[in-house]
Each structure stands twice: as C-alpha cells, then as structure tokens.
Write a structure and sequence with these properties.
The chain is mainly α and 133 residues long. The chain has helices at residues 7-30, 34-62, 67-94, 100-128. Helix 1 runs antiparallel to helix 2 (34-62).
C-alpha cells in the first residue's frame, strides 16, 4: 500500500512516524502519566496523517484549476486544516485522558517531517522501495 502513495507523501508519513517513535520513547522516560502521553502522541499522529493526506489531495486538485480558483481553493482548505487542528486541540483539552502537550508535540512533527523529508527519502525510503528520484 505504501508503494502506491506519492513518494513525497510517503516520506512525510514515515518521517512523522519516526518522529513519533522518538518523542514517545523520550516521553516514556520523562513523563509520569505515560498512558495520557501515549494517547496524546497517538491522537497527534492520526491527526498528522489526516492533515498530510488532506494537504496532498488539496494540492492535487488545485493543480488542475486555473490560478484564481486554485488560490481560493487552497486558501479555503488551508483554513479548514487550521480549524481541524484547533478542534483536535479542543477535544484534547476537554478529554482528561489525552495529553494536550503530546498532541501539540506531534502536530509539530509534521513540520519536522517536512524538513527531514529529503534525508528520509535518501537514507530510508529509497532503499526500502528501491527507487531513486
């Protein structure tokens, strides 16, 4: 299934997963309430997967539009992603079982994953999937 994904999206998802594993291990060492922290990391990772896929689908559709329509469509979907992130944070705040800090740490993982994408492609996914770009 991962082989059918766009290579950049695949790299971002794998990068977010690796980041999640690293912050999970660090959190298990540092935090007292491990279950809440782990649930926060899990909610954050699921959110990141959704946000990355939504961003990809938005870009794919916008590429087939004229400039003005693509700009409006991209802006509308970008705002939608912010609203979704805000809603996820509100749910995490209201649910005492979920660590809000862990959710925020994972949502930042999307940015970290984007910065690490070239390295992840070079050293991990190109070797696993035997492809070069």
């Amino acid at each position: 299934m991962l082989k059918r994904l766009d290579p950049t999206v695949r790299d971002l998802l794998i990068g977010a997963l690796l980041y999640g594993i690293i912050v999970e291990i660090a959190g298990l060492i540092l935090v007292e309430n491990r279950l809440n922290y782990t649930l926060g990391i899990l909610v954050g990772y699921i959110s990141v997967v959704f946000l990355i896929c939504h961003m990809y689908l938005t870009l794919e559709k916008a590429l087939d539009m004229d400039h003005d329509a693509a700009t409006k469509y991209g802006l509308r979907n970008s705002i939608l992603r912010y609203v979704i992130m805000f809603a996820i944070l509100v749910v995490a705040i209201l649910a005492p079982q979920i660590s809000v800090i862990a959710v925020i740490i994972m949502i930042f993982g999307m940015k970290i994953s984007a910065f690490l994408q070239p390295l992840i492609n070079k050293y991990i996914t190109s070797k696993i999937f035997k492809e070069r770009r």
